[in-house]
Amino acid sequence: MRSVFRRRWLIGLEREGVTTVGELRALSEEQLRELWNVGPKTIADISEALADRTLRSEDPLWCLELSAAGAIAERDEELIRMRQHGASLGQIARRFGISRERVRQILNREGW
Fold first, then answer.
1. pTM for this structure?
2. Residue 57 sits in the same domain as residue 93
């Protein structure tokens, strides 16, 4: 499963002139930390995504972002897994950048 990159992370990287997978791979962890809105979670997600051997250096960064349809389905699966492991609605909401009410709606729709 490919990592889901939040759109704001991709926009932030592109603002800094990083537009391809190769350019992202060339950045050290220290250089990533200096970028706006890049923290430990973003760095972990970048490392995980770049481990995908199917990515080529010339691939654009947007290929790291799942399509809206894919992101929703995978997000919902992860959301349910978190709830199964005891995460609160607030914890899940913060993880995905959505409201607790939206978490509740998704869980209800999926029978939780």
1. 0.55
2. no
